[in-house]
Amino acid sequence: MISRQRVMKRLGNQLFFTGPTMIFFSIALLIPFVYGFYLTLMKMATPVSPMEYAGVENYLRAIRDNKFWDSMWLTIKYVGATIVLVNVTGFALAYLVTSGLRKQNFFRTAFFTPNLIGGLVLGYIWQFIFVRSLPTLGEKLGVELFRLGWLGDANLAFWALVIVTVWQSAGYMMIIFIAGLISIPRDVIEASTIDGANSWQRLTRMTIPLMVPAFVITVFLSLKNAFMVYDLNFALTGGGPYDSTKMVSMHVVQKAFIENNYGVGQAEAIILFVIVAVVTGVQVYYSKKMEVSG
Predict the structure, then answer these.
(1) Which end of the chain is less crowded, N or C, counting CB atoms within 10 A of the terminal residue's CB?
(2) Pick from 49, 46, 65: which is nearest to 57 by CA?
(3) How is 207-243 classified by DSSP, letter by letter?
(4) What does the alpha-carbon distance between residue 171 and residue 91 come to, in Å, rounded to a whole number?
(5) How far apart are CA 231 and CA 237, in angstroms?
(6) What is the C-alpha radius of gyration for the chain, rounded to an integer number of angstroms?
(7) Helix (H, G, I), strand (E, B) or coil at 110
(8) Which has the closest alpha carbon to 228: 263, 253, 262?
């Protein structure tokens, strides 16, 4: 009887601490996800339209949607470009502000500040820069690259989106890298210096291998953010010119709410979720294996 009371008391304590969290998790994520999956099995034009059971029809239409896969392929290229540039830039900034640079706290704050600006506001600010400021600057300096209408060219608009993403996200990744760099034992670096290793050898053979846990986190965050980008894409390019920069999240929203194919749009959202979950899962798995082997 006493043991049963202890078990019940322990269970009650666990529910007291974990119960509210599970309730909020269910309300915010679990229930909407399950309901969203249910909607993919229904035929409906808008969220308030009468629903008819459609089975897997919405998934078949989503799979046959060439524009969906075009936007998915464009997003994959965007993911690849931003993962490399965001993490390289973030690590370079972290290495710079932990190397004894004067006023390094000021630079840490300055590099992190762009991350505090919302994607919509950031997109409109950089839209003004690409449309007004850069052409004027290019005209005065005679730099042809700046004079070009970046947001009016398919290739340049894509790279404009990448540049703004790096400018926004690199400072946040820098904070994670700073935490990793500070946690590296100083005696390890000092021992390698005594053994005759130069700065490049210390960086490539000591620092970076010890930073693998930080890279696991930053690559995961970069991957997730790049796949789910919407607000910056909407504000900066709007998917233009001629849908050449329409990422998959924007395509899904337009399919559901602008083209009034809510069931198909919801099915495409589920497909996107599965792809992101698989890719991030594979990334974390192999990153953890590198971390253990290292």
Answers:
(1) N
(2) 65
(3) IHHHTHHHHHHHHHHHHHHHHT--HHHHHHTTT-STT
(4) 9
(5) 10
(6) 24
(7) helix
(8) 253
Cα–Cα distance between 50 and 66 in angstroms, integer? Answer: 27
Q: At 52, is the secondary structure helix, strand, or coil?
A: strand
* Tokens linked to 183: 């946690």
Residue 31 tokens read as: 């229930």
Residue in the structure block whose two tokens are 């495409």: 268
Of the candidates 49, 32, 38, 46, the residue with the CA atom closest to the CA atom of residue 267: 38
Q: What is the mean pLDDT of residues 42-57?
A: 75
The total number of residues shown for the chain amounts to: 294
Distance CA 25, CA 212 (A): 30
Write out pLDDT tens, residues 278-290: 988 888 788 777 6
Residues β-bridged to residue 42: 53
Q: Are 171 and 113 in contact (CB under 8 A)?
A: yes
DSSP states of 151-176: GGSHHHHHHHHHHHHHHHHHHHHHHH
* Closest to 94 measured CA to CA, from 8, 195, 176, 216: 176
d(CA 61, CA 173): 38
Q: What is the pTM of this model?
A: 0.84
Extract the tokens encoding 96.
């710079």
Give burial (CB, 10 Å; 0-12/13-18/19+) of 52: exposed
The residue to which tokens 């007291």 are assigned: 16
